[in-house]
Design brief:
This protein is an alpha+beta fold. About 35% of the residues lie in helices and about 25% in strands. A 7-stranded mixed β-sheet has the order 3-4-5-6-7-8-9, sandwiched between helices. A hairpin with a 2-residue loop joins strand 1 and strand 2. The longest helix is centred in the first third of the chain and has 20 residues. It is globular. The chain starts with a helix and ends in a 5-residue tail after the last helix. The relative contact order is 0.14.
């Protein structure tokens, strides 16, 4: 696949970030907490610096919106939305399910996205109108249309202890209507796995743009559907997200997640 300079830069930046993460993985970390259970380490921060250095060396005029250190230049037409380490809790516990997530927004639209899982050695990439790829091979979402045959994946927001009612009710209701459910600990990888057909759908609330921007494009380019819980396609800066393999599954899950009934 011949990607544009944007996606090639995202791939190079993701590799640079992943290289930093692997240097820290399974080592002693200086861990701080942004919240009661929301960790950050020098791995996150140094990976973010490496990623931004690559991007700015190619596109110095572009903006950056990043998770660590409050970097926010979202008002620029071209803005890179990045998470240097999605799955930090997994990372600090030595669980190999974590990744680098990088997306490029032009005005109001995501046009490029890369998710790199360095321990598992999987690189998901997509560009608007050019399809989605895993390690260079084109991927498509699952063809399953029956909810009871679906494998779902979700995550819990960091605020779940304070506002658990809707989260637990949705979890229970979906569990009762699907073949199975998983909780990996990385929203970006959850989305990538929907894109390549491993899961039929993903839902979660309490998300940030850097958690989902790249994954949302990858799902769409693989033939899937992404929206908020109410079906709106304008979701990157909203609190909820649903990504599904087709309209049938998407519609059924939205009816379960309908917050008016929760």
């Amino acid at each position: 696949m011949k990607f544009s300079k944007y996606t090639k830069t995202a791939l190079a930046a993701a590799e640079a970030g992943a290289e930093v993460l692997l240097r820290y993985y399974n080592k002693n970390l200086n861990i701080e907490y942004k919240g009661e259970i929301d960790p950050v380490s020098q791995a996150d921060k140094n990976a973010q610096k490496a990623i931004i250095n690559i991007i700015k060396s190619v596109f110095p005029e572009h903006g950056i919106l990043a998770e660590e250190d409050g970097v926010n230049e979202i008002r620029k037409d071209f803005c890179w939305i990045l998470d240097p380490l999605d799955g930090t809790v997994n990372f600090v516990h030595g669980v190999p399910v974590f990744c680098v997530s990088i997306a490029l927004k032009y005005k109001k639209e995501i046009i490029s996205g890369v998710i790199y899982s360095p321990v598992i050695k999987e690189i998901f990439a997509a560009e608007k109108g050019k399809g989605a790829y895993l390690n260079g091979k084109k991927i498509k979402v699952s063809r399953i249309k029956d909810l009871i045959r679906s494998l779902a994946v979700t995550g819990f927001p960091y605020y779940v202890r304070k506002k658990s009612k809707r989260v637990i009710e949705n979890f229970t209701n979906i569990m009762m209507n699907t073949q199975g459910m998983r909780r990996l600990g990385s929203a970006a990888l959850d989305l990538a796995y929907v894109a390549c057909g491993r899961f039929e759908f993903f839902w979660e609330e309490g998300l940030k743009p850097w958690d989902i921007a790249a994954g949302a494009l990858i799902v769409k380019e693989a033939g899937g559907i992404v929206s908020d819980y109410e079906g709106s396609k304008d979701f990157i800066f909203k609190d909820t997200m649903l990504a599904s393999n087709n309209k049938i599954i998407h519609g059924k899950v939205i009816r379960i997640l309908d917050h008016k009934n929760n």
